[in-house]
Amino acid sequence: MFDCKLSSMLNIEYPIIQGGMAWIADSSLAAAVSNAGGLGLIAGANAPVEWVREQIRKTKELTDKPFGVNIMLLSSNADELAKLVCEEGVKVVTTGAGNPGKYIDMWKSHGIKVIPVVPSVALAIRMERCGADAVVVEGCEAGGHIGELTTMALVPQVVDAVNIPVIAAGGIGDGRGVAAALMLGAEGIQVGTRFLVAKECTVHQNYKDKVIKSKDIDSVVTGRATGHPVRVIRNKLARQFQLLEKENAPAEKYEELGKGALPKAVVNGDVEYGSVMAGQIAGLINKEQSCKDIIEEMFTEAQAIIKNFQNRI
Ligand code: TUI
């Protein structure tokens, strides 16, 4: 239906890839997104290598469609995960929170499609020169670790600067977002926050409810002072981070407060003292749905919007 370079490159039906949400994106979510015609991803994040290997193998049992692994480059075992995806025959790797340049040749030699997430034009150009197959251009509307620029401003600038396909991310939660991203010149989209509330997403129910209840202004960015800004839904933990920022506290204080905060919310369901990473589009999301319903709804809406505009011009 959406005939584009990205769908043919990745051998998927819809040009949508799932965000590699740390502690959340496991085989259940990845396989459901892939079975629905998108590209599902397993989050490497800080997980033990053997857990990631098991998730890759489980995903292969749950789907015969392509899927990928996201490698978060701030994680201490990024080197091991970079090798693991080669050993396990993973077809696609996305990366976040850093420059994956040193791994690209190894991944390419194993036939892996490499899609770094970039927050700037400069890094997109560097990634293209290093052999990346596409880039995810992520605006600061996204949840989790973010850059400075918005999706609206960044996507067209990267589209003008590179020849590889651009995948827009950050603030995309429905068909209007899909259509807008395509208008900006993107070949596809990456979605995180809406998949948080997917039926197949195994995040704690309290986390899903927090996303569903949140309104437009309920996300905040913490950690700017440490150079690692992270967008989360506001709660008691976010307020404690904001107080540290006001006091100009040393980096160790942030580390102490942030330690284990993501699993506290994801696994234990403590959405007051845990870190509830989600994007600004959370305010638009109001129900749990299957991945299939989410993807089909988004693309049916986008197609109707685009057709409607074609009739008006
Ligand atoms: O990576 C993400 N989002 C994430 S990772 C994550 S896990 C985490 N937990 C606690 C603290 C920090 C992270 C949660 N959310 N998105 C992709 C992304 N990558 N956004 C921004 C960037 C990025 C930033 C700088 C990519 C490259 C980069 O390069 C800097 C350089 O070295 O040139």
Description:
The chain contains 14 helices and 11 strands. By secondary structure, it is of the alpha/beta class. It has 2 domains: 5-197, TIM Barrel; 215-277, no CATH class. It has an 8-stranded parallel β-sheet with strand order 1-9-8-6-5-4-3-2. Strands 7-11-10 form a 3-stranded antiparallel β-sheet. Helix 3 links the parallel strand 2 and strand 3. The two termini are 22 Å apart. The protein binds ligand TUI. Residues 22, 45, 72, 74, 96-99, 117-119, 123, 138, 144-147, 228, 230, 262, 277 line the site of ligand TUI.
Features:
14 helices, binds ligand TUI, 313 residues, 44% helix, globular, alpha/beta
CATH top level label of the largest domain: Alpha Beta
Attached small molecules: ligand TUI
- Name the overall outline: globular
Total beta strands? 11
How many helical stretches?
14
Residue share in helix: 40-55%
Query: How many domain units?
Result: 2
Beta-strand proportion: 5-15%
What is the H/E string?
Answer: HEHEHEHEHEHEEHEHEHHEEHHHH
| Unreliable runs | none
Output the CATH topology of the largest domain: TIM Barrel
Strand order of the largest sheet: 1-9-8-6-5-4-3-2
Query: What's the CATH H-level superfamily name of the largest domain?
Result: Aldolase class I
What is the architecture of the largest domain at the second tier of CATH? Alpha-Beta Barrel
Separation, N- and C-terminal Cα atoms: 22 Å
Question: How are the elements arranged and paired?
Answer:
Blueprint lengths: L4 H6 L5 E3 L8 H9 L4 E4 L5 H14 L4 E6 L5 H10 L4 E5 L4 H9 L3 E6 L2 H9 L5 E4 L5 E2 L5 H11 L4 E4 L5 H9 L4 E4 L1 H4 L8 H9 L5 E4 L7 E4 L2 H11 L4 H8 L2 H6 L24 H22 L1
Parallel strand pairs: 1-9, 2-3, 3-4, 4-5, 5-6, 6-8, 8-9
Antiparallel strand pairs: 7-11, 10-11
Helix pairs in contact: 2-3, 8-14
The structure holds ligand TUI.
